[in-house]
Amino acid sequence: MSTSFYVEEITAGIGAHGTWKMKLKTAITTASSDFKPSVVRCDDQCALGKWLHGSKIDAQTKLGMPYKVNKRVHAEFHECAARVLELALAGKAKDAQALLDGEFKERSEKVVRALNKWKGELLSSTKAA
């Protein structure tokens, strides 16, 4: 795959993950959601996860550290998002909000940093070539 393909997918992933905070805030406020924690916990159901777990990334890239790091932090993000959602759906708004403002925020920022780092490495390798 071309570098531009990877950059486009990474950029889309960053944007899509930004919307999770709003979805979870709504779940906390309403104690309801269209999403189930068991599905949110799976890191291969969102667009970024489908890409990371799918066949569009070549085997060589999957052996690299940027891929491995991004796959790991993405899975950790989904685990935390599911826990926020479980608390929200259980009516534990205060606990859910605390988790959202704490660990979830950290994990979300970590995903964005890792994706941006990967994207930067891809772009700099293109310029060096």
From TrEMBL:
<dbReference type="Pfam" id="PF13682">
    <property type="entry name" value="CZB"/>
</dbReference>
<dbReference type="InterPro" id="IPR025991">
    <property type="entry name" value="Chemoreceptor_zinc-bind_dom"/>
</dbReference>
<feature type="domain" description="Chemoreceptor zinc-binding">
    <location>
        <begin position="17"/>
        <end position="85"/>
    </location>
</feature>
<protein>
    <recommendedName>
        <fullName>Chemoreceptor zinc-binding domain-containing protein</fullName>
    </recommendedName>
</protein>
